[in-house]
Amino acid sequence: MKSLKQTLKRHLFGLLGKEPEAVVVSFHTGDEVRARAMVEEVRRLVPDRRHFEVGPEPGSAWQIYRRLRRTFRKYRIGQAAVLFDGDHSKRPLRLAAFLLAPGKILAFNKGLERHHLRLSTWIASWLFLRGVPLDRIFLRPWWLCPWKRDRSSVPEASQILEGRPVSPHRPRVAVLSPYFPYPLSHGGAVRIFHLLREAARRFDIFLFAFTETGQPVEPAPVLEFCAKVILVPKPRYREPRWSSLAPPEVHEYRSPVMRRLLATVQREHAIQLLQVEYTQLASTGGDILVEHDVTFDLYRQIHARRRTFASWWDFARWRRYEHAALRRYRRVVAMSGKDAAMLASPHVIAIPNGVDLERFRPAPEPESQRLLFIGSFRHFPNVIAHRFFTEEVWPLVRDEFPRMALTVVAGPDPLTFWRAATGLAAPAPDPRIRLLEFVRDVRPLYEEANLVLVPTLVSAGTNVKVLEAMAMERAVISTSSGCAGLGLDHGVSVWVADDPEAFAGGIRRLIRDDALRGKIARAARRHAEENFDWKRLGTAQRKLWAGLLAPLVAVRPASASDLTEIAAIQAASPEASAWEPESYLNDGCLVGLERGRIAGFVAFRETGEAECEILNLAVAPASRRRGVASALVGQVLALFPGPVFLEVRQSNQTARKLYEALGFRQVGIRPKYYHSPPEDGIVMRFQSC
Q: Which DSSP symbol is given to 236?
């Protein structure tokens, strides 16, 4: 049967003047390196067919088509591989391929992903040709296609790691981050790690962080100064970028699991402040929002360069979302005075990025011509910067300096982020460009470098890697945006250049002028010492937290005029003891005030030398979970250095967890101690030593 079919096939196509077996034609319609990779991929996919290649052809699409038609007159084309990488000069050849083999086009994009172009899937084909990555072209918004299978998902897993013991004498602060800040693989992690370590001198820190598959987490260094670390996997967001009013980066971090853990841990440990790192997490709410960059300004810069509807939509969404988010926080932290002015809000303060001056010390410069660029590809402006330098600046100096070489530190898993940002499989190879992934200790790279490059075209916030180069006493060549907000002066403490010719000119000047290069490097180190020491910035971080905590709860001795409000709070707290309020004044009683109003009270009596018993503690329902109870008990503990006792209903789990968090431990049970309803009392004790 098979033999008969083959015979009929040969006769049929023989009558048409064509060979019976279909052939594969690959069109070199883009960058030659990618085109060659495409051809090799097609040969691997279809190894048992005859293959032809068509290179660049002169003329219009119609002229090219007529020549190709004559060439392939006797062949039946089964598949035509065509590269779509944005090279407009190859457009006529692409059109000719469509005319020659309609319905047979296997399209390849810049990242060498492939897709069959068919009318039956015209939307997907159109999106593919527009440059949308293959794994996203079939995404449909949930509100348009509620039956779709590829849905967003939120992992239910979580992990709680125990760090250093909490102290009743240290206020408790929660910090929410979109990633775990160790290893120190990019500037944001460096900032969070060092400022939290400095703040931990006076505060107990509870760190909440998202994790991603494949991203390393090394908890030990962070657990040295954090009381707890709570890790939650990042949600898998599967919606088209255009389909939501809020920016897609915001939706990527909307996790009910994280919100639930935040609420539980804040309640159980009487956490008094919540600091949120990065704008995309701002919808969580809290007390302090840290703007690592002014995100709407970043997208404004991108829109100014691209001028597309997609770039405008990203900019408009971020501007709307970010301005609304700023109003929900008591304080907003910007990276520089420039960013603070841009946010234009009275509750914005600037705490700059910094550098570890003890770790990053000046080292003698070698006799070489080595350039260094450090920028994690996880942050897409660094991908833009890399392309700007390697594609536009490097060709201007490469041949002029045969000994010159460039080292690039691109952070963990750089090719994944490179493909997501560019659609390209990898940066173009160059034997004089060394591309490294995450480097645990970058100091040896600074030591071997003569110039540090910051070719950032779009940027917001301030650049930690500039500060490290300054501390290592290496001259920096940067764009205006790359060193913005650091107070540096062109030709004095940095060399500023914003276009390819000027950037290349700066490299020529500084490589050839050792004296000027050294002068700029030394001035930069002095500037870093005066303004960007993490220890000094850590003082600013602690001052911010202390300032917000101080007015929350003011504690003072109770007076007779307070008894009416004390009685009302006690009546609204059936889980507390029910003593006569007047009796509290016979021993000791403190009231906690929020904005001048009594929010809670604690009654106690001295039972021995430096020893005390807490008789009652109650907080108004509207003021609970805001640190009132912790402040009242903390003041009692400060008054009595010896043991402090209390009783609590066995069923009052919330109060028991609060007391345990403050350092109390169960030492006994008093059967039927409470009435209405009858219940055992749990005896707890705090011992300061």
A: B
